[in-house]
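Researcher: Before we compare anything, I want clean individual predictions. No alignment, no superposition, just each chain on its own. First chain goes here; please echo the sequence and then give the structure tokens.
Model: Echoing the first chain and its structure:
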Amino acid sequence: MSHEIESTFDSIESAQEFVGLLAEAVAGAKQELEVDVKRESSLKFPRRLQALRVALYNVEKLELHMSKSRRILNDLRTLRRLLFEERVATAAPEQAKPTLASTPQTPLSTVLPHPSSVVSPSNRKPQSAAAA
């Protein structure tokens, strides 16, 4: 049984699945709390209503954390794939596809103009003044 618990997060994909299930449970809890808050707002128990609003606030924060966790796991999976492709490229260069790391990089300073040389509409001279 301990082996089963240890293997739950053996991969990023399994962690993503777990976070997805947890996010669904949090969304369900949020819906229930919203119904409870609406029901309690018509009754005369302000402390209970306040407690429900605090619980709803915390569940909303948890929902945001779940969303952030999903994005972070997705980024990690993407980075792992990029790194894996780079390792494959270095192991077999004749069969590898060109990657961003293998293409020559042009410094941005040679591509983009210096900010002081850019003419904005506010500092352009009128055509008649330019001709004079």
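Researcher: Okay. Second chain, same rules.
Model: Second chain and its structure:
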Amino acid sequence: MPKNRSKFAKELNKFTINAIGTAVFNKAQELVPEGGSGNLKRSGTISFDSKGFKITYSAPYAKQVHDGDEGPLPQYIQKPKDHDRTYRNPIKRGEYKGATSRPVSYPNGRDFGSKRVVQWDGSPRGWYTTDTPREGSRWIQKAWDAYVQGLSRKERKFLMKLGIDLSSKFDFS
């Protein structure tokens, strides 16, 4: 009889971990920022082992969106090609006075300092710069917190008896 109990306990633990992991992952998928392409949401996966579950987002920018920008932003130097800049009205002074365009060249690049370049459909040119670090969304932790808050006292007690730490914090690695 002890072997059956041990086997039953392992199966119950596995079932519980699968149920919890699936619930947290589904909530995380609801909370993940979709952006314009939805690639971040589509990159989400969940895997299970005997000790727990692992939620992974494989998009290259997932960690930055989840955790936010850490510390000062790096210096950004844009390297645009030489081009002509066109103006609506004639240029009023200087070498190109009266013309509606002039050549533009940045041989050493255009230095934006520690500003972050952001693409945005609402901007007239499709991008803008900002010196404000991105705040993290932490959608996986929010999903876990929502799951734990939805548990009854009995369910919490049961999970703690199974050895599941309800005070866990999720970090991107």
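Researcher: What stands out in the second chain?
Model: Residues 91 and 97 are 5 Å apart (CA to CA). Additionally, The beta strands are 44-48, 53-57, 77-78, 83-86, 101-104, 110-111, 116-119, 127-130.
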